[in-house]
Every structure is written in structure tokens, then in C-alpha cells.
Specification:
alpha/beta, 3-stranded antiparallel beta sheet, 9 strands
């Protein structure tokens, strides 16, 4: 008997979810729901740029727990998210941590102990909101080797990078290039529109497609429209699910 084809999936993730971006996150979720997206991975920053923890914001924890109870997933996304520039940083490191990420590569070069301490603090914040994160995704997908060891040691199930979903328990890497937009300058927005149009075609036959949304994307009409259009197109032949749901399917049908 021929084996049934695996479910084609799309994971839509909203990055940088926090009290700072709460209103915009809810707007994005409403737009995604109008497209038929019924499961989203929410990448939550426990203390966004040090402006206040998620557990201290009235109503945020209840809202987050409610989203998880209806099928979304909370993913731990750094702790502060920001990496402060250091005097000892060389040119190559400044290019990665300042030009590429605008200073947001928090876990790029953390040592093991500092990474574990931030991971534990972040998990405690999410637990205070009534949710548990099984996945950890570093800001800007920049996860250094020592920090990744800390993520595994803290018992997280998986992480992702821009082109890979990595499950720690099995040690498996799943190739999957995420669509993501850069909106900090006009030329970046133009390039992002062209690149993601091309990339969406290129990954169209992949088992897993990924769409990564950042709250500032919704400030730009052309970016917003393209994201929603590509999402609708992918949902024509795919099921929306979270990273955790997709990995569960892979474990059950390797």
C-alpha cells in the first residue's frame, strides 16, 4: 500500500511579541485570521529592551495564555532582545550585530552561563503568564554555539534559524528558508518585496513553508499586502500550524 503524503504546512510566526508591540500584534493576528490562519507561533520577548516584563503588564499574560489555549504557541525569543555594542567588537562582529540586526542579536555571542541565566529568567516570566515555551528562537536567528548549548541544557525542544528548524531531542535539522522582510529603509523594502516574491515561488514545493512577521512590517502597506497575499496563496494547499505542532507530526511520521 502506498504511504500517504505528509501534510504540507505553513508556519506563520510573529516576532517580537511583548507589551511594547501588543496592539500591533493583535492587529496582525486579526488580519491573519481573516486569511484563514488559525495557529500562529508567537515569539515572545520576556523584557523587551528592558521596558518591562511580560508578567508585570496588566492583561498581557491572560491574553497570551488565551491565545495558547486556542491553538497558538508561545516561543521564548531572547530575554531583552537587544545586544549592546561593545568596545572590543571587531569590524565583522559590528557588521553582524549592528548593521545586519540593528543591535538586536542578543544571543549571538553570549557565554554559556549568561545564556542559561537569561533563559531561566525568560522561562520564569512566561510561566508567570501561565504558559510554557517549548521552543527558543534567538533574536535575528543569531544563536552562538555556547548559547545553543545552554538552550539544549535548559530542555528546550527546538530552535530555528533563517533556513533551518532544529529539533534537539532527535538532533534532526529540517531545511526550510523563512520569508522575512526588512523595512528599515526604502531600498530594503523594495528588495524585500522582490526577494520574497521570488523566494515564495522557489519554496513552493517544500514540505514546510515559513513566514516571519515583525510588527514594523505593518507600517508599510505594500509589505503588509504582500505578506497577506502570500499567506493566502500558501494556505490554498497547506495547513497552518505552529512549530511545535509541525515537529509533533514529524516525530509521529518520521
Amino acid at each position: 500500500m502506498q504511504k500517504a503524503a505528509k501534510t504540507q504546512a505553513v508556519v506563520v510566526s510573529i516576532h517580537d511579541v511583548s507589551p511594547v508591540t501588543w496592539d500591533r500584534t493583535r492587529e496582525i493576528l486579526r488580519d491573519l485570521e481573516s486569511c484563514g490562519v488559525d495557529a500562529v507561533s508567537l515569539l515572545v520577548i520576556p523584557d523587551h529592551h528592558g521596558k518591562g516584563t511580560v508578567s508585570a503588564c496588566e492583561g498581557f499574560g491572560e491574553w497570551l495564555a488565551g491565545r495558547v489555549s486556542r491553538g497558538d504557541e508561545a516561543v521564548q525569543h531572547g530575554y531583552f532582545h537587544r545586544r549592546e555594542a561593545r568596545a572590543a567588537d571587531g569590524l565583522a562582529k559590528r557588521v553582524v550585530t549592528e548593521s545586519y540586526t540593528a543591535g538586536e542579536g542578543e544571543f549571538f555571542d553570549l557565554d554559556y552561563d549568561e545564556a542559561r541565566e537569561k533563559l531561566r529568567r525568560g522561562r520564569a516570566e512566561l510561566a508567570a503568564c501561565g504558559v510554557r515555551a517549548e521552543g527558543f528562537i534567538a533574536p535575528a536567528w543569531l544563536l552562538g554555539a555556547r548559547a545553543e548549548e545552554a538552550v539544549k541544557a535548559e530542555g528546550f525542544d527546538y530552535t530555528t534559524r533563517i533556513a533551518v528548524v532544529r529539533e534537539f531531542k532527535s538532533g534532526r535539522d529540517f531545511s526550510s528558508r523563512s520569508l522575512v522582510w526588512s523595512v528599515r529603509a526604502g531600498w530594503r523594502r523594495v528588495c524585500s518585496l522582490a526577494w520574497n516574491h521570488t523566494l515564495a515561488v522557489a519554496v513552493g514545493g517544500a514540505p514546510l513553508c515559513r513566514i516571519g512577521i515583525h510588527p514594523p512590517d505593518w507600517d508599510h502597506g505594500a509589505i503588509r499586502r504582500q505578506i497577506l497575499s502570500l499567506t493566502r496563496g500558501m494556505l490554498a494547499g497547506r495547513r497552518a500550524m505552529t512549530y511545535q505542532q509541525w515537529l509533533t507530526l514529524q516525530r509521529n511520521d518520521p
